[in-house]
Amino acid sequence: MRIGKTEKIIHHFILVCLGIIFVLPLLWMLVASIDSSAIQALKAPERITFDNYLSIFSDSSIIRSFFIGIFLSGGQSIIVVLVSILAAYPLSRYKPSYKKSFLYTILFLTSLPMTAVIVPVFQMFLIFNFVDKLWAVMLFTAGTSLPYAIWMMKNFMDSVPLELEESAWVDGASIWGGIRRIVAPLMLPGTFTVLIFTYTGSWGNFFVPYILIQSPEKMPASVTIFQFFGNYGLVNYGELAAFSVLYSAPVVILYYLSQRYMSKGFSLGGATKG
Q: What gap in Å lies between CA 185 and CA 72, rounded to an integer?
């Protein structure tokens, strides 16, 4: 089907509008972070300064919140990747009678909003004295991320030919050896995809840490950003923008480091050739 000139213009116009919508907030963030008198609107800096960044780096509570955020997000991502691989393997390689209903249950759990379950979860944390425990928050957020991670990992694992594993079994490899030497290396693009989705979701999670962590000194960076909004609507936009730039850095670095694996795509069917 050929696309006419008018349709092309409409498509390009929509794409340009979407691009502007995404670029403008990023542009404000970068410009306001070096502006001595930043405001909520995008404007040229009156005087370029790095005082906003120096103020962020000199605040020990903010630096600590970054490390706590990395600890929570990194730990959650590692747990989710490891558990989802082990959970997806029997769903991909075997055909148990409960497979279909189990997969539908996983799909249903991915649609549950966190706000609907946070009250009983908070009550459970109170009963078991888990409130204010970072490791407990990490395990809970890992559990909430597992449904979609298992679903994605199972689909990635389906793309790894079973014949490769059978060849390894004939050579004396165990099931765990087949997973470690055959399945896991071929699933690197999928593994990094799940890792990035989990990390970015956890890194930007404001609601769960805000409810389950009570001590200000244990708050991650996603909650610390709230401190830039003062009373009576006063906001330090320059420091807020500098904090936002630094807050975005771990996710950007993670995407940069993993893009080589993600660019390989999810097609693994050619592995049996040759």
A: 26
Q: pLDDT by residue (tens digit) across 237-251?
A: 888 899 999 998 888
Radius of gyration for the chain, computed over Cα atoms and rounded to the nearest angstrom: 23
DSSP state for residue 180 in the 8-state scheme: I
DSSP assignment letter at 160: S
**Coil, strand or helix at 230:** coil
* CA–CA distance, 142 with 144 (Å, rounded to integer): 5
- Residue 48, beta-bridge partner list: 35
Instruction: Please give the single-letter amino acid code of residue 36.
Output: S
Dump pLDDT digits (tens) for 100-146. 787 778 777 777 777 778 888 899 999 999 988 999 999 999 988 88
C-alpha to C-alpha distances, 143 to 15, 24, 79, 110, 249, nearest whole angstrom: 37, 35, 9, 11, 26
The residues near 129 (Cβ < 8 Å, ≥ 6 apart) are: none
- Per residue in 14-43, pLDDT (tens digit) is 999 999 888 998 899 899 889 888 888 888
pLDDT of residue 68: 93
- Gap between the Cα atoms of 18 and 239, Å rounded: 27
Indicate the DSSP class of residue 233: G
CA angle 240, 244, 249 (to 5 degrees): 155
> DSSP letter string over 12-57?
HHHHHHHHHHHHHHHHHHHHHHTBTT--SS----SSB--HHHHHHH
